[in-house]
């Protein structure tokens, strides 16, 4: 139907030498295509980042013991769903107030965004009625941003695996995705004070997403305590993951999803420059992951005499986190090295946490927090617009905010309902004790 | 009759089986086991944390043969399973009072 309508119009334009009409049609087509391609980038990027939820689920299912796999999967699908609704009802407008700050202002620095649920454009919206015709559709933006919020929550679940109760964890997820993540994200991506006053640069969220998940996980791990039998007589007792094939699949899925995470964060694809930049970002993101994996591969061989696959998987992810704050400006070589440093951080970060008796089941704190801090500082290496204090202070401000608020919430949850299962339930496994359902029933003792 | 119990390295099982059937041994019982001897385990590292593997996987053979054959069987197992590295295993020989083939009711050497 639309084609029928436009055909006579273009025919007339071609026949009559009315330049103005022809130009208008050209402008419309070109600005339409900018709108369309920008929205398309958000949609493709969004569903790739969505797929990272599957990556986290598989990585965690593989790295927990088989008696806790059903619980880990339950947490992963539940946290994603709750994040989706929390972000719609509260998070989105808190993160993107579009100048309507509850506390602060665009010019002087915004601190607390707007309250109200996300609203989409009308069905079949036209050029005139689109919220931002010069940019992209609201639905695509909401969809894309929602996935980042859910990613933050996914990070937390891995650290706290194998001993936390389901419902306190899910309540924390709601608070994290409705308030903690959107508030601090508004400070940078919503045009708040970290963006306007500090000149903070964090392209796709080494700090805004990954460190935030890491800080929340760290606070939880401290309140929750280590798994029973993890630290005995000053020694670290390894608790082997149940399925390294799933853990590897999960890592590859995350790697794939990261192209949407970083590539989509170009936030535009309607011009030659933007598409070329998205392409740079894809290539840099990939090579950073490779650098992280190779660093862990070589380092574990040298340090332990044998390669540790779980460290190589963590190394690839740390490489990805490291490049996330600035995936555009580095050369391929620089991106590889930035990722490789992330891999090194993980190989030392995992035993370091064990020394502190902080039990992080999947290594999410070294991967997302430690490498996230490194990645945020690494912006200084390749982006001339970054300043040292402009990077360092926001890392500290976001860290203190997220860690302290998370700590308070974990303490409250622990006091009100207890966040940890009892000893017997932990030993028997959360699958049977909390859910009465096993992931691998045919292998159970009976 | 003698019962020969041998704990050997799992990867040597097929070679030992071939050597013994070549000798005329007509049956054996095989169990996958874990254990330790002088080798007394080893250490591995998982995510930076060292841990001891106290029990090493082995294969246990149980073979009942006529007295005359026992020595040869022990020698063959020892020769075939040997790698000259620690953890090659051990072989024990015990006396057997009786044997019975369930299907036919044959006893002792006839049942083997």
Helix count of chain A, per DSSP?
Answer: 15
| Major beta sheet, strand line-up of chain B | 2-5-1-6
Strand portion of chain A: under 5%
Largest sheet of chain B: 4 strands, antiparallel
The number of E-state strands of chain A comes to 4
> Can you summarize the main beta sheet of chain A?
2 strands, antiparallel
Q: What structural category do the secondary elements of chain B indicate?
A: alpha+beta
Mean pLDDT of chain A: 93
Subunit arrangement of the protein: heterodimer
What is the secondary structure topology, with strand pairs?
The complex is a heterodimer of chains A (446) and B (112).
Chain A: H1 2-15, H2 19-63, H3 69-95, E1 103-105, E2 109-112, H4 138-159, H5 166-188, H6 193-196, H7 206-224, E3 231-232, E4 235-236, H8 244-263, H9 272-304, H10 309-324, H11 332-355, H12 364-382, H13 388-416, H14 423-428, H15 430-435
Antiparallel strand pairs in A: 1-2, 3-4
Helix pairs in contact in A: 2-3, 2-4, 2-8, 3-4, 3-5, 4-5, 4-7, 5-7, 5-13, 7-12, 7-13, 8-9, 8-10, 9-10, 9-11, 10-11, 10-12, 11-12, 12-13
Chain B: E1 2-8, H1 13-23, E2 29-35, E3 42-46, E4 49-53, E5 56-65, H2 67-81, E6 89-95
Antiparallel strand pairs in B: 1-5, 1-6, 2-5, 3-4
Helix pairs in contact in B: 1-2
Give your account of this protein's structure.
The complex is a heterodimer of chains A (446) and B (112). With 446 residues, chain A is mainly alpha-helical. Chain A is 69% helix and 2% strand. Chain A contains 15 helices and four strands. Chain A has helices spanning 2-15, 19-63, 69-95, 138-159, 166-188, 193-196, 206-224, 244-263, 272-304, 309-324, 332-355, 364-382, 388-416, 423-428, 430-435; strands spanning 103-105, 109-112, 231-232, 235-236. Chain A has a two-stranded antiparallel ribbon. In chain A, strands 3-4 form a two-stranded antiparallel ribbon. The longest helix of chain A has 45 residues, at 19-63. Chain A starts with a helix and ends in an 11-residue tail after the last helix. In chain B, α1 runs antiparallel to α2 (67-81). The relative contact order of chain B is 0.31. Chain B has 112 residues and is α+β, with helices and mostly antiparallel strands. Chain B is 23% helix and 37% strand.
